[in-house]
Amino acid sequence: MKPIITCIQLDIKFGDPASNYLQVEEKIASAVESQNPTIIVLPELWTTGYDLTRLDEIADDEGKTTKQFLSKLAKKYKVSIVGGSVAKKTYESVTNTMYIINNQGEVVHEYSKLHLFKLMDEHHYLAAGNKKGLFKIDGVNSAGVICYDIRFPEWIRAHMTQGAEILFVVAEWPLPRLHHWRTLLISRAIENQCYVVACNRAGLDPNNEFAGHSMIIDPWGTVIAEADETAGSITAEIDVKTVKKVRNQIPVFADRLPEFYD
Ligand SMILES: NC(=O)CCC(=O)C(=O)O
């Protein structure tokens, strides 16, 4: 079965997890009803937005609430979820953490953002992760990274050389750098000959206007679905066999010469 992927481009309510859980529940229900997706993707920090000064109060304790919430919806609708990311509080720190839930409602992986974005003060409030975002979703080897991570092609490549065929990107990417967002995502798809599924947020917070433009890009670099700047969703069916076809046509992975790269 070919994956049908929906990105939900939310307008996140700043610092208001209760409202955001509610709107995500409604938007997942309506995406399932109208688009029949097999995989749903949410944006970065969708429970709290960038309300970093209040994380002590509003971050999710060990991610428990989010994991239960997404598992329940995944099971109810038999859909896999790339659960954007949330602020996860532990005894030691708060991380910007993505949960991957399969269509049985099981949490199959969690990835914490490796590269913290200083321009949005992340380094003052969040701790970086230390593990790759590699997982299988609906049988497809995939990678998941968070926003600023896409500026580090070597980090993405480290996932791709381990066999990932879809790169999921979840983000809160501001409008003034929309050109970078589109160019970096298309470049990551072309250089890695993979699908890129990128879910950004829409709307405003007290410091930023966000770019929207969630995108689904094929391994040739063609944009097959793209949102505008407003809240909404995009959906596309993808054919994972295209990854092998493109990798056979131009054998970039076989032609790498890593011994010259450092
Ligand atoms: N939330 C983020 O990591 C934003 C990254 C960003 O805006 C960039 O230009 O990079």
Automatic annotation (TrEMBL):
Signal sequence range: none
Keyword Hydrolase: yes
InterPro entries for the chain: C-N_Hydrolase (IPR003010), C-N_Hydrolase_sf (IPR036526), UPF0012_CS (IPR001110)
Pfam families reported in the protein's UniProt record: CN_hydrolase (PF00795)
GO MF: hydrolase activity
SUPFAM superfamilies the record matches: Carbon-nitrogen hydrolase
Key words of the record: Hydrolase
PROSITE patterns: CN_HYDROLASE (PS50263), UPF0012 (PS01227)
Domain of life of the source: Bacteria
Family from the record: Belongs to the carbon-nitrogen hydrolase superfamily. NIT1/NIT2 family.
PANTHER family: DEAMINATED GLUTATHIONE AMIDASE, NITRILASE-RELATED
The name this protein goes by in its record: Carbon-nitrogen family hydrolase
Organism: Metabacillus sediminilitoris
